[in-house]
Task: inverse folding
């Protein structure tokens, strides 16, 4: 029987996905007893691994005390504690916290908050949020309007106000006539031209993923890029929004990826995923208390959901942050990130189809190519990312694999294990990934999509 949710994504008659039975640490078991090493933390979520008893106990205590109390009637200790811890972790200028039920809601909150601050200041003409192409900022219509994904825009474009896009600063593949060294800076020339042609007084913000997720395959730029981005926002009076839904909560080896570039601080940040590590649905917007006060003084934030600041999710978030600190997971992400990079470089060196390894900390991706010398893409019908994803599952390994933007910018899979990973688990990950790639290459040889070496 096909699973009710799976049936939305796959044609009728597709084989069902395995059925989950239990999970512990970085491992999951299906109901047939097969074990999987999760090399992607789900969709980059389960930062502290499964079955953490301290988090489960903290959630039980909150459930016993009160599972839900509406923000319209009560404040909660869990919300206050989460806000206090996040303000300390995010630092000056990001000291106010608005909890949501996930990443898309957090990004919606960032967009609407920025707009309402501008309106409160009398800058009512500012509403355009410039974003990169490709990018992913969420699936609700507001978050989708700043998402650079031609495929989604073709379907949902008429229902939203698609926002101006500027190119993502890829360096592995650059447009004809460009160089890897110069292209990131050129993309910011394009951004500046766009701000000028749209009219700076109509532009509200720029949103970027400081370290990319699935849309760019963990794309990361150098400090000069982020500094110039910050300077452009300052020059034209735009907010800089960092989408750290995936890159935040310690995944890149700092609490925020923004912390890698301390002289390019964002004004507003969205966090989710690893923040509650899958124990409960949670996202947050972080912004400055002074902006919150401006909005509050003008009548209050015109935005909210039923599950805003719900005590159970906030309690899960607090417990995950406590565990992140107790277990030294941010430091581990930095240390094991270097080890993972080295492992992926070894895998790439031994595989004819891994053209590029990139990312930061434990937010990494490998880009798949049909020919390393020419960087040629596989034909779309090969469906290389899903093929690799399926082969990995057969091999007891989970990678995060989905084609973005019809593959026009390249195809990659995310390798982003839990921040609890140690050398032994990393060794298993490397072996299983190398075995999986060998199996895929052998298949590609058999069906003629890869010439024999
Ligand atoms: C960078 C980024 N932003 C936003 C989102 C949306 O988060 P959610 O799926 O929790 O709504 C995601 C989800 O993958 C993401 O990776």
Result:
């Amino acid at each position: 029987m096909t699973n009710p949710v799976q049936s939305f994504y796959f044609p009728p008659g597709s084989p069902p996905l395995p059925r989950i039975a239990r999970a512990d640490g970085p491992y999951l078991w299906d109901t047939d007893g097969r074990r999987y090493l999760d090399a992607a933390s789900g969709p980059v979520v389960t930062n502290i691994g499964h079955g953490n008893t301290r988090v489960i106990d903290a959630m039980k205590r909150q459930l016993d005390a009160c599972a839900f109390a509406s923000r319209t009637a009560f404040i909660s200790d869990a919300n206050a504690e989460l806000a206090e811890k996040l303000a300390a972790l995010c630092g000056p200028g990001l000291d106010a916290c608005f909890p949501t039920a996930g990443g898309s809601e957090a990004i919606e909150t960032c967009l609407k908050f920025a707009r309402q601050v501008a309106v409160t200041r009398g800058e009512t003409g500012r509403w355009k949020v410039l974003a990169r192409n490709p990018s992913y900022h969420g699936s609700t219509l507001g978050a989708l309007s700043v998402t650079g994904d031609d495929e989604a825009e073709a379907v949902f474009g008429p229902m939203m106000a698609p926002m101006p896009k500027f190119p993502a600063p890829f360096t592995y593949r650059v447009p004809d006539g460009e160089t890897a060294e110069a292209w990131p800076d050129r993309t910011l020339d394009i951004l500046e031209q766009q701000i000028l042609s749209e009219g700076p007084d109509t532009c509200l913000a720029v949103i970027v993923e400081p370290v990319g997720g699935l849309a760019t395959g963990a794309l990361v730029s150098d400090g000069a890029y982020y500094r110039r981005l910050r300077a452009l926002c300052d020059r034209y009076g735009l907010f800089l929004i960092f989408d750290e839904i995936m890159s935040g909560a310690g995944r890149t080896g700092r609490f925020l990826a923004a912390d890698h570039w301390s002289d390019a601080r964002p004004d507003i940040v969205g966090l989710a995923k690893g923040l509650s590590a899958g124990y409960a649905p949670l996202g947050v917007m972080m912004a400055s208390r002074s902006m919150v006060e401006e909005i509050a003084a003008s009548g209050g934030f015109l935005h909210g959901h039923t599950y805003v600041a719900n005590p159970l999710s906030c309690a899960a978030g607090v417990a995950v942050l406590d565990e992140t600190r107790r277990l030294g997971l941010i430091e581990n992400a930095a240390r094991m990130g270097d080890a993972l990079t080295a492992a992926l470089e070894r895998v790439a060196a031994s595989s004819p189809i891994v053209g590029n390894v990139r990312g930061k900390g434990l937010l990494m991706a490998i880009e798949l190519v049909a020919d390393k010398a020419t960087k040629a893409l596989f034909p779309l019908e090969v469906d290389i990312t899903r093929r690799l994803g399926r082969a990995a599952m057969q091999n007891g390994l989970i990678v995060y694999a989905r084609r973005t933007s019809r593959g026009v910018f390249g195809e990659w899979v995310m390798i982003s294990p839990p921040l609890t990973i140690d050398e032994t688990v990393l060794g298993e990950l490397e072996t299983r990934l190398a075995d999986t790639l060998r199996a895929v290459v052998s298949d590609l040889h058999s069906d003629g999509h890869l010439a024999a070496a």
Notes: The mean pLDDT is 96.
